[in-house]
Amino acid sequence: MNTIIIPTIALFASASFAGVTPFTETFESGANGWLQGSFSAPTHVASGAMDGSAYISSSADLNSAGPFGLTIFRGQDDFDASGDAFVGNYLASGINQISFDFRHNAGQDLGIALRVATSFNFPAFAVELPAAIGSDEWTTLSFDLSFFNPLLTIEGAPTPQAFNEIMEAIGNIQVSADRPDGLTTPLVVDFDLDNVRITPTPSTLALLSIGGLGMTRRRR
């Protein structure tokens, strides 16, 4: 098993914002509103994920990918993905990491990215990984939702204000795959997804705990 984790520098919002709760989508009961990139339903597989549990699978031809890759999975507010457990204000709860278990069978390494957007699908930002992902092996991929992450690109003005506006109103989570260099013929690939998680990093949890303790002391 491989794990790719990007270092995180946390940003925080005012306590007045309503936050979201850390959550993991296991797909044990079905696709739960998640879709393939084509907006069709993914295949639900009852067992065989990294931990032996259920997962969802999509299929796509990477020869049709554009310059920004091809969307292969969608967890979107307008389709009530995971009961909208991923929808809300990530800054308020210190949520600064999205991770998931992932596998593909392209027969070559692929670049995988995450796009995070508001419920209107814009504004948004994309987060790349530092290395391509190998074929035919489950891997845990982690994406750092930090303005200071050099692998994060904001679609629009690259300012902290623009970043915060997205993080305070996240509605859509989209996974994409890059077209391999030199590909000129169809390459239909199966992609597998499981255990999509939104979490604070340990350092964020510690700082949030200290902040909560301080507020408790002030109330006393």
Q: What is the terminal separation in angstroms?
A: 48 Å
Largest sheet: 7 strands, mixed
The average pLDDT is: 88
- The CATH topology corresponds to Jelly Rolls
Topology:
Blueprint: E1 2-4, E2 23-25, E3 35-36, E4 43-45, E5 55-61, E6 70-76, H1 90-93, E7 97-104, E8 112-118, E9 124-128, E10 139-144, E11 152-154, H2 160-167, E12 170-177, E13 188-199, H3 202-219
Parallel strand pairs: 1-10
Antiparallel strand pairs: 2-13, 3-6, 4-5, 5-13, 6-12, 7-10, 7-13, 8-9, 8-12, 9-11
Explain this structure:
- It contains 3 helices and 13 strands, in the order ββββββαβββββαββα.
- Strands 1, 2, 4, 5, 7, 10 and 13 form a 7-stranded mixed sheet that branches. Strands 3-6-12-8-9-11 form a 6-stranded antiparallel sheet, covered by helices on one side.
- Strand 8 and strand 9 form a beta hairpin.
Record keyword descriptors for this entry.
220 residues, alpha+beta, Jelly Rolls, seven-stranded mixed sheet, six-stranded antiparallel sheet, disordered C terminus
Structure summarized in a few sentences:
It is built from 3 helices and 13 strands. The protein has 220 residues and is of the alpha+beta class.
